[in-house]
Design brief:
The structure is a homohexamer of 140-residue chains. Chain A contains four helices and five strands, in the order E-H-E-H-E-H-H-E-E. Chain A has helices spanning 24-31, 64-79, 84-87, 98-112; strands at 2-15, 40-53, 82-83, 118-126, 129-133. In chain A, strand 4 (118-126) and strand 5 form a beta hairpin. The longest helix of chain A has 16 residues, at 64-79. At the A-B interface, strand 1 and strand 2 of A face helix 4 and strand 5 of B.
Chain lengths: 140, 140, 140, 140, 140, 140
């Protein structure tokens, strides 16, 4: 009995998009308002999908309290009220785009959860913009 | 032209998680607040996904009024305002976890709908916790 | 500068509506499915509105972290995963209708917050049904 | 690094469901209230999923501003405040069911976006009814 | 113990905004896309607020099942899947703007509910646009 | 016929809470994570309420397209993707708390709209935290 559970979480952060190998003009042309040198910010909404086999003794795939605490410790506390560019070492040399951010969160969670599970994350930067990693045509 | 239609429904129920083969201590350790002997409850939100070929004469995969009525008769009326442990025979010997509940709803709907359709359900126990059956990496 | 801040919270509980001074027939006629002897349950959504004067040194009406913690300690922990009829002394002789429940939450919060504040609560029993106390034409 | 980005959009339109090769009785029997000769209408919510490889120089799969503008020009401006039956040539001989509408929007967007991308759309006709094209068991 | 209960409902309809005493140019200038001669449509979301005294025997202001049925019979069935201009007599000589529509729904409900209650309605024409009647500074 | 219309808008920004007349310890004690020197950020959701008399010729209180454009020009374009502390002159000597921010937006809109209208704003800093100005017990 293979199943997927999902858990949502929320945090907020500041960031800017800026590639130091680009000229200022190219950064402005490509990243527009997201290139603001003084940073801007978002409330990020996260949905984590964990797939695997249900434990028949507990009826659980994973105790959602455990999943909630792992997300809280390794994602919410790491990123909440932070400046992604300045406060998060992983973004020292990596653009904090939603794409790269979703993959980073996926990789953090995959390293903390039982490797028998398959993990997918959906990260909303705004209520209308989101990123899913791995891609929906790769999750199998 | 293969397509998926989805329909959402809502109902509420009481339940508790308790495995009679476990000691009281183990039930408390594993299920925590969900083990409360007096029950607790939820508003369940359900999204049913039905995949198949569109009928070119009607433009429909399935008349959503028909799908709505099947969900109402076989899911909402069966579970709404019920105690899952005491009022639902299928849970007499099965833990009413969201995982098992999602699979039960899937199996009920699959037995009522044209077997040519492929069915998936997403069941939210709270706005932040949900289960999808079959797993998102198995729906193909 | 008088302002209102609002904070949302979430918890779930089981309950039933039953007036012991009514006959079984009258209870069934008035409360319908809500009279189920085995209880049913809900995810309750709560929005708490606090009105008063802004502190110009902090820019705050009240530190929302303080408000969040008061709601968590005195509302969420008191009611979450509980059976309102059996686990909550205030409902020993009071019908746990959403109306009475909203007033109880209002009165608990009013007793824990600075009396200079005016408090209003909105309590959703389902996404479509809610109660506001005090009434919207009385909050002044 | 294959990823999916999603973007939501909103528009509204009038339509009716009516197959001219059916008798009036059959149209009424199959389409019910949706057959009203004077039309009815909806707020349509659209979520567009685009899958492909992330550009490591920008951290983007696709500039969401570009995706937003393509959806605005080719979907929102084409359908918003329109009568699907009378104002949209593609529906002159095609039933404007949500199924056919979702496929039309998919095909429009696929023709405007880089063919290296894989496209999926989810179109809500009401908050409870939606269609996904291609089917969730075909997106691979 | 004065309290407010609220109940949400949903329906959809087509309409156009057109004042026959205006020239075509003036209609176009004032109503823009909403003047489309072929109609457009919306999913309307409605929240009905009823204020009054709680009945201590039932714990209810009003049985929400009764309120739900009154809204269903006198609002949803009257307007759902209708063309407001052509199918609703009250709009024969009245512009079906959201403002006039909210007042009409208020007046219908006020005529069906106990006159001891005070009624307010909020009507969303889109997720971002709504009308409240009576005005929020008049409900007292 | 006095009525209220509401319009929702969305933008995002970075900010920090820091009172330069406080010691670092006091700033940390009062503002906690919101005091991060590198800033953090939010998606702000705004609902603007405008109350007044309906124009019987148009059925409108105010053309919502006009209201939308005023909000876009004077609120969204002024604050979107900005650092409130560094990019917004009004916050040079004013704490950018949600309370002060809501009042600023109210005052901007009141200065751009017909003074016959009464204005109220609700500003969400996160999905669970919001501020309403003027206070709900003052709007009359």
């Amino acid at each position: 009995m293979r199943i997927t559970v999902s858990r949502r979480a929320h945090f907020n952060a500041a960031h800017r998009l800026h590639n130091p190998t680009f000229s200022d003009e190219k950064n402005e042309a490509i990243f527009g308002k997201c290139n603001n040198a003084n940073y801007h910010g978002h409330n990020y909404e996260l949905e984590v999908f964990v797939s695997g086999e249900v434990n028949q003794e507990t009826g659980y795939l994973i105790d959602l309290k455990v999943l909630k605490d792992i997300i809280k410790e390794h994602v919410e506390e790491k990123f909440d009220h932070k400046n992604l560019n300045l406060d998060v070492p992983e973004f020292a040399n990596l653009l904090p785009s939603t794409e790269n951010f979703a993959k980073l969160i996926h990789d953090i969670l995959a390293s903390k959860l039982d490797p028998a599970f398959s993990i997918q994350v959906k990260l909303w930067e705004t209520p209308r913009n989101a990123v899913i990693y791995p891609a929906i045509d790769q999750i199998r």
